[in-house]
Amino acid sequence: MTGLHIREFKEDDSHVLRDIYLISRTQTFTWFDTSEYKVDDFDKDTQGEHILVADYDGAVIGFISCWLPDNFIHHLFVHPAYVQQGVGKVLLNAAIATLHRPVTLKCLIHNENAVAFYRSQGWQIVERGQGKSGDYYLMDLL
Predict the structure, then answer these.
(1) Mean per-residue pLDDT for 53-72?
(2) Burial of 55 (0-12, 13-18, 19+ CB in 10 A)
(3) How far is Cα 91 from Cα 134, in angstroms, rounded to an integer?
(4) What are the extents of the domains in the chain?
(5) How sure is the predictor about 1, in pLDDT bands with cuts at 50, 70 and 90?
(6) Backbone angles phi, psi at 85, to 5 degrees
(7) What whole-number distance in Å separates Cα of residue 106 and Cα of residue 115?
């Protein structure tokens, strides 16, 4: 995707990332009641995390956030208009480059598209767990 640039998060990005986070979760997590999701969930859910932003010709179109002490990828969201265009892969690779291996993440089992995406990128399922958002796979990349 020509014109795609991954960069560090700036506070000015917050308003766009809040919208992307809300829209993406509402459209993706169809098995949940998403009526309680709020635009400011982004601030709470990424607090203290390292965030990289996908910038496409000056427009913010996605982000990835990581909890650095545990080499854990917490969130990866791309605006629905840019899904399946390679943005997630570029964000994922940029984040991995900043972390130490092994890198882990959790992916909700019901999120079949995300599970397939991570597996296509070389991630493996190491265990199954249950959290407040439902059953998930713990995945790692060695």
Answers:
(1) 97
(2) middle
(3) 25
(4) 4-141
(5) confident
(6) -120, 10
(7) 10
Lowest mean pLDDT among 15-24, 31-40, 90-99, 122-131: 31-40
Q: Which 3 state secondary structure label does DSSP give 110? A: coil
What's the CATH number for 4-141?
3.40.630.30
Inter-residue contact 60 to 16 (CB < 8 Å): yes
Segment 107-137, tens digit of pLDDT? 999 999 999 999 999 999 999 999 988 899 9
Displacement of CA 138 from its chain's centroid (Å):
14
The helix or strand, by DSSP H or E, that contains position 89, with its residue range, turns out to be helix 87-98
2: Cβ–Cβ under 8 A, 6 or more apart, which residues? Answer: none
Residues 46, 75 contacting (CB under 8 angstroms): yes
The reported pTM is 0.95
Q: What is the pLDDT of residue 133?
A: 84
CA distance 63 to 51: 7
Both structure tokens of 11: 């506070």
* In the chain, beta strands by DSSP E: 4-8, 50-56, 59-67, 72-78, 103-108, 124-131, 134-141
